[in-house]
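Researcher: Please translate sequence to structure tokens.
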Amino acid sequence: MMVRICSVFCGSFSFAGWLMLWGSALSPTQVNGGEYLLDPVFGPTALHFVLVDPAIREELAVTDVQIAQLEQTLVQYRNANFAAMKRSIDQRADGEVVDRKSAILALNRTIHPALTQTLSEQQFQRLQQVCFQKLIRMHEMRPLLYADFIAALELSNDEMIALDRARRVEINKLSEHMSQLNTMHNNRIDQILTAEQQSRFKELYGDPYDLTMSGVSLSNTVDKEFALRCPRLYLLCSEAIRREVELIDEQYPEIKKLQDRFSTRERELKRERRDLQPEARSEYLAKAFEELAQSCMKEEGSILLPHQIRRLNQIVFQVQSSEKDRALTPLTRETVASALNLTDDQRNRLNTEYTEGAERVADELNGSWKQALRTVIESLTPDQQARYHHLVGKPFE
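Model: Translation complete:
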């Protein structure tokens, strides 16, 4: 049974991780006068880290007054982001071309001045160092290879290649370690389930699908209603998933019509709600979206073949198991627990295994990660190591 209980580097794919995707083509580092700076486009990432992580707030010695100011900045950012999203929906409905990515990156840069005005110079510098350390972990040490950072360390081309080679070796070791931990976890799960329950779960889960191949998410998307209401139809927006479920050329035009129909009607509904009283909007939208989803899913079922629907259901299950509510692991979801007919004792034992297992894995991987990063940095010359430690500051635990 394949049930991954954590990610090697960052656990769940958070709001900050979503923001990183938008700027993945950019270098998030700038080095000026030997000091490390975070590119302003990653301001929301830094703001998110401060507000959600008590350890970072303690590290920066942030006051209650500063927290209140930063929380207000977040509210303003979310309101501006919502307004920008609303404008883009209206513009698309009117047939205009919308560059959503550029708009978000421009909005992200507005956070930077608020951070510099709220935090002291020392706090802001340390926040940037902490952010970079976290991004190194979230992105498999790739930030070490950004152009500005390479220039600051004065690495030659050969040294950069050697650094990347050392990074890849250590990342592979971490992946192997993660695989071993997952195997141990799966074995403990198998001891709790009966043979019949194991067989049923494998049928629900299916063959593991590499979710990075599709690049889609059911939780971190601007089309949340579409992804929530019609997950199979939404996942078919991905060419990689269409190949995985063996969708043929003759089927896709009909699927595309359904996808366009949902998106068009969604925009219409969001415009219609403006004419409603605030207290009536939620109920109206919920009912309308449910009717739309039921209609689309009915037509979807007449287009797809049984084996395609079965594989799509498995991928939906895997995507949902890997996203924002990772702590609510597959076997403890009520729908799955009921399908497997788990006893109360089994549910309790599974909850215990997932809770203790997650802590156990986190502790082991944290130690392995520190050793891996230390090994990679030690591949640099003593002078380069000194520059690295000056730029990123003391390790943040």
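Researcher: Any highlights?
Model: The radius of gyration is 24 Å.
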